[in-house]
Every structure is written in C-alpha cells, then in structure tokens.
Design brief:
The chain folds into two domains: about 220 residues, DHBP synthase (Alpha-Beta Complex); about 80 residues, no CATH class. It is an alpha/beta fold and about 325 residues long.
C-alpha cells in the first residue's frame, strides 16, 4: 500500500477513503490522530494492527458537534449531564476528553471491552471539517507506532506508518503538542485519568462553580499498571524513542551523564537551550525532540527536570513514561 499525503484541500477525498473503510491520519490541535469510522468495526480493528497497539487500550472518539454524543453515548443522568455541559462550555472544542457511558452501538473494539467510552471534540478546523464530511464520529488514537513518541507533523506519521495506512491529511504542526487531558465524569469524585494542557486547577474552577468536589488524579496502582485501562496512556509504556531517556535534576548533572552516554541530546528549559546539543523543552517540542534524537543517531536523550519543568504535571507525565523501560 502506498500512503498518500493529502492537503487540507483534499478533505472530501480523505472522507471518501474513511467511508470506504480505510485508515486516514489527520491533524488535531494536540497530536495527529489515526482515524477510522467509529461504527466500522473492521476498520477500527485495523488501527490496532497498523499501530501494533494492545487491544485492551481504549480509543478516543472524536466528534465535531455536541449533538454527535447521542450516537456514541448512552443518556446521561442529571448529575453527569450537569458537569458534562459545564466542561463542554468551558473547554470544548479543545484538548479535553470525557469518559461517558457507551452507547450499545459502540463495539468493544473501540472501548477495550469497557462499558464506558472516551469522547472529545477537537478544535483543529481540519479535524472538524473531516468529521463533518464523513458524517459520523471518528476513533483516532495517536498516528504512530505504539509506544513511540506521538506525531506532531504529517512527516512524523509517514515515518511511522508509511505503507500501513491509506493517507495522511497534512494540517501543519500541532499547536498543543501533547495528548488531551482525560477526565472520568462518571466517577465520584471526578477523576483525572491523564493530565494534559487543561490543568487540574482549570477543571476544579468549573467543578466547584457547579457544586462538585474537586478533581483528583487516578490511582493506577503499583508500577502505574491497571488491569483494564480506562484511558490511553494509563497502562503501557508510551512516548519513548529508541534512544535511552535519562532524567537529570540539573543542567550540570546532564553534562556529567552525557559524558557516559555519548552521543547524547540534552533537553532543558528554554533558558538553557543555547547550544547545538541542547534543545528547548516544552509540551509543544517534546515529541519532535525525541524523534530528532533517533533521526540523528543519538544514543541517549537526557532531560533536565528542574523545578520549572517539574511543575508541569502533563509534561512530567510524558517524560516519565518515555523514560520507563517497561
């Protein structure tokens, strides 16, 4: 199979491929997603084969309109509807995924066998236009080989999935650069399953205004393992390049580590990124930098997790996952 590179002028063509049961990668504001029609079970299962993704790792359903939820979620009780409406008004479309009760028409292939379904409303105009052109929501995990850094450009997708999918819809570089925040609004208390660019503080402001208790982070147990992950990013090793990822507490420590892991690429706060072997570290640049390390043959990536970086919970989540060798 030859993977075609399409532009935003070819949305109707990409939609035709999806309606025909093919897989098409497309941009969102977070990372590129690998799309299939949510009600095409055969195409959904092909996503797992193309990525090498474990079948119990649930997929996120991408909707263009609030009304689309009725086709993928069972009716919400009054309490859940209240917090759903409030979070939607505050953050959607955008980088927020909500766990909802799954509709009977949603197959276990989408949810990893769970009775719930993860739903979000991407803000990227190309993603919205594609979903509307297809005429139904799309499932879309990150468009990369499972376990490796997520793609933030069309070229990243082609590097990983060339020959495995029908097409990539090029929408430029992703603005946010890390995956969406995932929240379980069916739980008591409300739970953050995966941190992202929408923070706990922002979520709590909405919850408290609606009379709910604050959001808490999910307890995934020993070694970050769950028997049945409720959200992508909870159970398996993620975001890791072939190069070893090593954490340092200071720039000086990173230099010492680099001597023992030559050649090494150092990622640090932008204030320190003033050399050819030091790249600026941010949510937007992390995955591209990890991919650069492999492309340029670095043996290791040393990430300086100083106080500033440690305060970014979403970024630290991705960094520690990348450093894991599970």
């Amino acid at each position: 199979m030859t993977t075609r590179l399409l532009t935003s002028e070819h949305i109707s063509e990409a939609a035709h491929l999806l309606r025909s049961g093919e897989l098409v990668a497309f941009p969102t504001e977070t990372v590129y997603g690998l799309g299939a029609r949510v009600f095409d079970e055969r195409a959904v299962k092909r996503i797992f084969l193309a990525k090498g993704r474990p079948s119990d790792n649930p997929l996120i359903v991408h909707c263009a309109e609030k009304a689309d939820v009725k086709s993928v979620s069972s009716p919400l009780d009054a309490r859940t509807q209240q917090i759903f409406d409030a979070l939607y008004a505050a953050f959607c479309p955008g980088a927020l995924t909500m766990i909802l009760p799954k509709h009977p028409n949603i197959t276990d292939a989408v949810t990893g066998g769970l009775s719930s379904v993860a739903v979000r409303f991407p803000e990227h105009p190309v993603a919205q236009a594609l979903i509307r052109a297809v005429g139904e929501p799309l499932v879309a995990p990150s468009a990369n080989r499972s376990g490796y850094p997520s793609p933030t450009t069309a070229q990243h997708v082609l590097h990983d999935l060339e020959g495995r999918i029908a097409a990539v819809l090029d929408g430029g570089s992703c603005e946010v650069g890390i995956e969406s925040t995932v929240v379980n609004i069916l739980s008591d208390p409300l739970t953050i399953l995966r941190p992202g660019s929408i923070t706990q503080e922002q979520l709590n402001a909405v919850a408290l205004a609606q009379g709910f208790t604050p959001f808490v982070y999910a307890d995934v147990g020993k070694d970050n393992q769950m028997i049945a992950p409720q959200s992508p990013g909870m159970k398996y090793r993620h975001y890791a390049p072939d190069a070893a990822v090593i954490l340092a507490s200071s720039l000086q420590e990173s230099f010492e580590l680099a001597k023992n892991h030559h050649p090494a690429l150092i990622l640090a706060d932008a204030a320190f990124a003033n050399g050819t072997s030091i790249l600026a570290l941010s949510e937007q640049s992390l995955y591209a930098a990890l991919r650069t390390a492999d492309e340029q043959g670095f043996r290791a990536v040393i990430i300086v997790c100083d106080e500033t970086i440690q305060q970014n919970i979403a970024l630290m989540n991705r960094i520690t996952k990348a450093a894991s060798r599970r």
